[in-house]
TrEMBL record:
Its EC number is 1.15.1.1. GO terms for molecular function: copper ion binding; superoxide dismutase activity. It catalyses: 2 superoxide + 2 H(+) = H2O2 + O2. Residues 1-22 form the signal peptide. Its cofactor is Cu cation; Zn(2+). Destroys radicals which are normally produced within the cells and which are toxic to biological systems. Gene3D superfamilies: Superoxide dismutase, copper/zinc binding domain. This is Superoxide dismutase [Cu-Zn]. Residues 47-182 form the Superoxide dismutase copper/zinc binding domain.
């Protein structure tokens, strides 16, 4: 009797792990690279650009690349915000995306909102690029940033280290200069 129970258990385990059982279904999509993009623009149409996101697989960190123009020279805070609602411009995107209820911080800080990217630095000609890899955001799963907003702020993000009352919530990074909604992109984007 012991042998037959062990044999049945082994057969069930083997069938559960067989390639036929592990094929993707509509409820279990294939584990592949994902890509997203946001087109940013400001209310006065001076600031514009793109932010792209790439995640090689669901367990990998997400790579973020930004190319922006029309900025004032210096540092500007950039963050993922809670909503993807542009019905009232950048104002309707809500607060920073913060699914774990942490205080504001920088991209390397232990305590930070999931979408705290720190600062992007604009040159004298108003152009800025960002290349960042971060493990607190994902393009799939329950904490996906797809459909959420991204905001470029007018001032420097103090990374939660300043003396302002806004330091722990927004990094005291000023007005919303430009924004967009993060959406699926082709994998080659």
């Amino acid at each position: 009797m012991k042998f037959s129970i062990a044999a049945i258990t082994a057969a069930l385990v083997a069938s559960a792990l067989s390639p036929a059982y592990c094929k993707p279904t509509p409820h279990m999509p294939p584990q592949e690279a994902m890509s997203a993009i946001a087109f940013l623009s400001g209310p006065n149409a001076t600031v514009s650009g793109t932010v792209t996101f790439k995640q090689p697989d669901p367990s990998s960190a997400t790579q973020i690349f930004a190319n922006l123009t029309g900025l004032t020279e210096g540092k500007h805070g950039i963050h993922v915000h809670q909503f993807g609602d542009l019905s009232n411009g950048c104002a309707s995107l809500g607060p920073h995306y913060n699914p774990f209820n942490h205080t504001h911080g920088g991209p390397e800080g232990e305590q930070r909102h999931a979408g705290d990217f720190g600062n992007i630095i604009a040159n004298a000609d108003g152009t800025a690029t960002l290349n960042l890899t971060i493990d607190t955001i994902h393009l799939s799963g329950p904490f996906s940033i797809l459909g959420r907003g991204i905001v470029l702020h007018s001032g420097e993000d103090d990374l939660g280290l300043g003396n302002s009352p806004l330091s722990n919530t927004t990094g005291n990074s000023g007005e919303r200069s430009a924004c967009g909604v993060i959406g699926y992109a082709s994998i080659t984007a």
